[in-house]
Amino acid sequence: MATARKTAATKPVEVETDEAVNNGPTVVAFRSKTKAERVEVPRKPLFTIDDEEYSVPEKVDGIILVRYNDAIRKYGEYAGALVLLEETLGKGKLESLLAWEDLTDEVLSQVLDMVIAELTGEDSSAGK
Predict the structure, then answer these.
(1) Full-prediction pTM beyond 0.70?
(2) Residues in Cβ contact with 19 at an 8 Å cutoff, skipping those fewer than 6 apart
(3) Contacts of 119 (CB under 8 A, 6+ apart)
(4) What is the Cα–Cα distance from 44 to 58, expressed in whole angstroms?
(5) pLDDT on residue 126
(6) pLDDT tens for residues 27-82?
(7) What backbone torsions phi and psi does residue 10 show, to the nearest 5 degrees?
(8) 48-82 in b/e burial notation, b at 16+ Cβ within 10 A?
(9) Neighbours of 114 (CB within 10 A)
(10) Phi and psi dihedrals of 127, rounded to 5?
(11) d(Cα 86, Cα 56) in Å, to the nearest integer?
């Protein structure tokens, strides 16, 4: 009996994603999408600067809020705001916004309020 246990313990465990196989543990395998599998997300305009349009996804993925809150928790509100703006506007548009010579704290705050309103579904008159 001890020999059977020892043999069973040293035998490699085969883990499958199908629960019916071996009635053993199951592991869910996640994988990244390829570029071909990624779908272009429809976007809607949020504001313009000198006729350059800045848009956000029509449907915002909940993971963006998780990343936003995680950044706030780890690094503070300013870092959270940058994560949120990069996730919604896109890295290039965020860099363009931050490079705008006439950007003020007030304008940046207004943009952030509009993005948060889009994420939470609140009706914001900040951009109107």
Answers:
(1) no
(2) 26
(3) 60, 64, 65, 84, 88
(4) 6
(5) 45
(6) 888 888 887 777 888 999 999 999 999 999 988 888 888 999 999 999 999 999 99
(7) -90, -15
(8) eeeeeebbbbeebeeebeebbeebbeeeeeeebbb
(9) 20
(10) -100, 10
(11) 10
